Amino acid sequence: MEKINVKINGRDYGAAKNSTILEACREASVEVPTLCYMKGVNEPGSCRICLVEVKGARSLVAACVAPANEGMEIFTNTKAVQKARKINLELILSDHKKDCLSCIRNQNCELQKMCKDFSVDDENYFKGDRNEYKTEGSTEYLVRDNNKCILCRRCVAACEKLQDISVIGANDRGFSTHIGCAFEMDLSDVACVGCGQCIVACPTGALSEKDDTRQIWEAIEDPSKHVVVCAAPSIRATLGECFGMEPGSFVEGKMVAALKRLGFDGVYDMNMTADLTIMEEANELIDRIKNNGRLPLITSCSPGWIQYCEYYYPEFTENLSTCKSPQQMFGAVYKSYYAKKKNLDPKDVFVVSVIPCTAKKFEIARDGQSANGVRDVDAAVTTRELGRMITKAGINFNNLPDEKFDSPIETGSGAGMIFGATGGVMEAALRTAAETIMGEPLEKLDFEEVRGIEGVKKAAYKLGDLEVKVAVASGTANAKKILEAVKSGELDVQFVEIMGCPGGCINGGGQPVQPMSVRNFTDLKTARSKALYDADAKLKVRKSHENPVIKELYDNYLGEPGGEKAHHLLHTHYTKRNKYKK
Known about the structure:
Blueprint: E1 3-8, E2 11-16, H1 21-27, E3 51-54, E4 61-62, E5 73-75, H2 79-93, H3 110-117, E6 142-144, H4 154-162, E7 169-171, E8 178-180, H5 197-201, E9 207-209, H6 213-221, E10 226-231, H7 252-261, E11 266-269, H8 270-290, E12 297-298, H9 303-312, H10 326-341, E13 349-355, H11 359-363, E14 370-371, E15 374-375, E16 379-382, H12 383-392, H13 414-417, H14 424-438, E17 456-463, E18 466-474, H15 476-488, E19 495-499, H16 516-519, H17 524-538, H18 548-558, H19 564-570
Parallel strand pairs: 1-5, 10-11, 10-13, 12-19, 13-16, 18-19
Antiparallel strand pairs: 1-2, 3-4, 3-5, 6-9, 7-8, 14-15, 17-18
Helix pairs in contact: 8-10, 8-14
């Protein structure tokens, strides 16, 4: 990498050519604070918190957008810089709702931290009128409070550039500027897909998931309820971040121990129903290929992607796999087969899922997600919500022993484990589909071509006499690329995996919020997904169809994959939606 010479706070450093001042300082281990900056996504230089002095410049310079040049002398901590940053913070706070103690982002708020760092106190705020907004735009998955918005526009950039959806933006002008939807419509009335990428981008408490923990506490305390919980694959690779652990820490044992201490009647592994999803989806793929069914078959595990398809590409809803997601399959199976085995009335069973995705909150209530007259899942909570529950209960997560999931749903295969990473569903399905088609074990289980965090991946595999062409996309902006290529005939594939969030579930909108100082310079997606692939490699059972719990379930209850009972319990349907309510 070609380098240039810069001087930062009086010391000489080398910096990458074509880097910004912010990047050059970061490379020299000098932190420059930012609020609006998202590397490669939102770089307006508007918050003016990253101001630095540059020798010879007429005024202070925004480090996030100003290029570092050969021989440049940069000062990041002068009296003028400190004063400018503090004044800008005071201006932001003059129109900010300061209920920090009760805010969902208390002690995890980038604005709060900066105010502490720069000794901003209540006596120094600029006085005057402030806008008052109702807590509005709320849906079954998201709460928006513009009283805490600092107009950094990171949420707008995430929606537009990461997801290519653009249902939010800056409305009005001047002092009245606020973030909202077109014509001040609520998010529930526009084509928001519920991915939650706006939440993880937000530096304050202006955006948060709708908290469903209260109803879970109430259910646990109700003696008439049998309350069980299942944890999605990716949670074990991210929950540790809620308690200060490094990104990518694998905490399955501690997660299970914490869930048991919260008082659930059963703590189970959603990896098992990820395996169940693969059994049904692999069977569906083979059936469509052999019987000239609608192709390409497109995976259906991501409810954000499903909503995107229903809103923006309704012509592809017939390509969607009819399989329910692992979350929904768990509820359906537990409230039928396992409830009967435990002599429980399904109406008295309360199923909780811990998930990486805010759109899962929408999924549990949509049509086609109930069987036997009851909802499959009663409450879906994000990784963040679980973290808050553990803290509220006084559980010392970091000191917990490792414990195991409850029997009989104590484990899934390695195939179920990798569901949390982009390409994981594809690889898991190929492991089962390949052995079903060829009638013999695979010599190599790792389909490495579909791994990695790239937004779009393509591959072709020879399975006996059959060649299966596949494509993988994560993030709805990349989903658009795949679908447009299929529509135009440019892309000829039989099987497509799409996840609504960039990188898949490990980067879901319900995952732990990391400050932009971490997100801009740490590859969270790779660190988190590596934890899942490493765990997969260590498991004895790495194929869904070899999971003994799955075998027992089909032998004793479901019959054959795709059979009548399986189809009634484990499959769903979709809706072609209008982008705006009429």
